[in-house]
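Hi support team,

I've been running sequence recovery on a batch of backbones for a student project. Most finish fine, but this one hangs at about 90% for roughly twenty minutes before it completes. I'm not sure whether the input is malformed or the queue is just slow. I've pasted the structure tokens below so you can try to reproduce it. Let me know if you need the job ID as well.

Thanks,
M.K.
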């Protein structure tokens, strides 16, 4: 299992320390949630913070834009050194164009679905995607309760990908811990985003290790 710890739950007064801890960990990438207070009811951080993280990170940056009109910011995300740019289907009027712009900028393209957005919305774009992120809580805040029907949604997406013989990864974000992580892994998830569960743990390195073994 690939683990992408979410810096939204890190100590922002000690962000370099926390990034360097992730460098020593078995995390596969580092997840950064950019929130604008419009698409989601919260504001997090922007490109200066991502650039600062990138100066110390030895793991690929998985940048998740929870913002309106994400297509306007492709070049800025690229310039932070991000490996993956992740946009919401619900925020993109011309999703295919946005996905192509991400790829043309040299990044991997990922698309996120909110909990109430059906998988059919991905049907025509799935072959173009490197990763799909399924939100297993409503986006905007950390430490929310896991939405149970997400397990079935992961199973159905796994079947869509396998039936089409694609290499698209399934990432999940929200309420991830050892129990939900195990169930998500069994359902077919490839990448677990974990924030509070990692950074509030007594031993974050061991917590990441345990998730990576699922």
């Amino acid at each position: 299992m690939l683990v992408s710890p979410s810096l939204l739950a890190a100590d922002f007064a000690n962000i370099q320390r926390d990034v360097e801890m992730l460098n020593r960990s078995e995390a596969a990438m580092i997840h950064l949630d950019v929130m604008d207070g419009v698409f989601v009811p919260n504001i997090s951080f922007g490109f200066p913070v991502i650039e600062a993280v990138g100066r110390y990170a030895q793991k690929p940056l998985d940048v998740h834009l929870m913002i309106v009109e994400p297509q306007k910011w492709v070049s800025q995300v690229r310039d932070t050194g991000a490996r993956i740019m992740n946009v919401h289907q619900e925020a993109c009027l011309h999703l295919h164009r946005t996905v192509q712009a991400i790829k043309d900028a040299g990044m991997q393209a990922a698309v996120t679905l909110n909990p109430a957005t059906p998988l059919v919305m991905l049907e025509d774009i799935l072959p173009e995607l490197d990763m799909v992120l399924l939100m297993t809580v409503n986006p905007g805040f950390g430490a929310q309760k896991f939405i149970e029907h997400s397990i079935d949604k992961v199973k159905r997406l796994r079947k869509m990908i396998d039936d089409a013989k694609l290499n698209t990864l399934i990432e999940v974000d929200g309420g991830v811990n050892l129990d939900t992580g195990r169930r998500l892994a069994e359902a077919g998830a490839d990448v677990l985003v974990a924030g509070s569960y990692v950074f509030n743990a007594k031993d974050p390195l061991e917590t990441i290790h345990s998730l990576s073994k699922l």
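--
Follow-up from support: It reproduced on our side and the slowdown came from queue contention, not your input. The beta strands are 2-5, 30-35, 61-66, 84-88, 108-113, 131-135, 169-173, 191-194. No action needed from you.
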